[in-house]
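Teaching assistant here, posting this on the class forum so everyone can see the example we discussed in section. The complex has two components, and the goal was to see what a joint structure prediction looks like when all of them are supplied at once.
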Amino acid sequence: MKLPRLNLREQPLPGGQPLAFGIGLAIALFVGTLLLLGAGHDPVKIYSRMFEASLGDPDAWSITFNRAVPLGLAGLAVAVAGSMGLWNIGAEGQIMAGAIAAAWVARIGGDWPGLILILMMLISAIGGGAILAIGPALARAKLGVNEIITTLMLNEVAIRLVQWLIHGPWKDPDSFNFPLAPMLPDQARLPTLFSRAHFGLLIAAAVIVVASVAVRYTAWGYELRIAGSSEATARYSGISLPTKVLTVLVLSGAIAGLAGGVELAGTADRITETISNGFGFAGIIVAALALMRPSGVAAVALLFGAVQIGGQSIQTLGVSSSVSTILQAFVLFGAIGAGVFSRYTVSFGNDSLPVNEEATS
Amino acid sequence: MNEASLIGLLFATVSFGALLYLAALGELLAEKAGVLNLGVEGMMAIGAVTAFIAGVEFRNPWLALVIAMLSGALLASVHGFFTVGLGAEQVVSGLSLTILGLGLAAYLGKDYVGLPPGAELVPVEWGSLSELPWVGPILFSHAPIVYLALAFGIAASLILSRTRLGLALRAAGESASSTDSAGHSVLGLRLSAVAVGGALAGASGAYLTLSITPQWAEGLTAGRGWIAVALVIFGAWRPSRVGWGALLFGGTLALKTRLQTFGVDFSPIILSMLPYVLTLLILLIISIQARKRPSPAPAALGLAYRREER
């Protein structure tokens, strides 16, 4: 029987991943056009509005930057773990843990000077994310427990922790019995860079650069990538895998925690149960589109942030938010599919065992 | 706590248990074949919305259930195409499927929010069984889909442990290349397991909108798909254990809204953490035991199979 077959390319297509993202975007635009026409909207008007709102002027850029910050940090968290072949699905929960820790500091340090307060908030956010990652990290390093499931479960625990806090101990007495935490003090807010872009942009950029250099150019990062590509090789070269797994997963959690702290101090008024807003899950996708390379995370996060902000903006034109959700999903699947084809070629051969490679080359 | 409210709690335990069991069974089948599908929440949402729409349009609950199962299978096949067909990362594709399913469900259902249901699955009449004290109202007064869930569970258990098909399916999840060598199509087995898994998740969603709720609203599935993913691990990939786990987790869902009426001063939010915390504990126990005996997890779970690369 003639079946299409995938053959691994010797080298991935150069520029394959940006191309994949572009193809994903094109597929999403096509499907989106159908959805919009189906709902009786003018696609040209909607798309130009999306572009205007996300990339049209400095104000739009600043909003997109603010969205790219948590996406980029969450993506970096996943990518650092991914460099070693580990899946941190728990960024969503670690972001919330980071936000909880930062909000706690803001509660007790309401009268501290601004710089110290913000520094302490961010440091404890890092700690909060790391603490939520320690369990899965230890379980994976010492017992070989699959980290995908443990980190996934802790997401659900962390969101309930936030809910419990704002329904109980942290409920604002002045909120007329609504489950709301009190507003953050003014000095707990990150300074503004331009328009609405906050200082978190520089924090995220710095962390991404440092992590990229560490993974790409240091001995530590080299060992990490060795361990990611082959456990056996790592063991022969004397790399202690359990220690590596432990440090990398905790570091990943710490970066996600920082994302939570930055998001709280940068864009949120107070801690809410939507503080993470799916950034942790989106981070997995950002990291995957960046092929788990920390250096690729920033660009993907910016593009993905623009898609999200553009999608939100068209709600004011009466387009259901579900259209933007579906568009995102199609960008993802389009990119996943195109990403596969940048690494494989398709041939229509016999559905039989492969021909010996030496004979074909 | 009086008798009526205790009966109400136990009835709801069975009801939520069946809801979780359907979705978890589907995930179990896919995972047994080697495919992790983190899109359960999205498939449940699609099942829920298509069942509700079909109910309103065709006024037949059984047709609505079938449509929901087909829709769930169709959505799951997107995951099947990308992960089994193209060998894409299962985690990434599954999470994307959740996003797609929730988005599509909201899009399709936006004109149906708050409408009265067009069709409902009414409780089965079991004659004198339904009249028995305690047992009658708790076990024999449910919608037919609850008994279907039990039947699916028994069928899945028998098929997996007693038939050649089940053996081939498990083999595909343990070692794809040897399954291939034995002349079975790994692709076919995995794609079918993923599609059937989607159909069961769709049925689970349909139970929400055809009986439990029975209305459509965005976010109706409320994270129960994630509980189903947890259940498969909690039940160590065995249909019977997953069934008992479903009752336990269903119990926490049923108790959550009743704590106050029982006068228990305990946060329902903390209670709702229980399924996840229990699953983490079980996972730890499994791993500690795994030093002495083999892990119950399918060995090839999460791994793509390409014949050319083996």
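For the discussion questions: Residues 350-361 of chain A have pLDDT under 50 and may be disordered. The beta strands of chain A are 2-8, 192-194, 197-198, 344-350. Think about how each of these relates to the inputs above.
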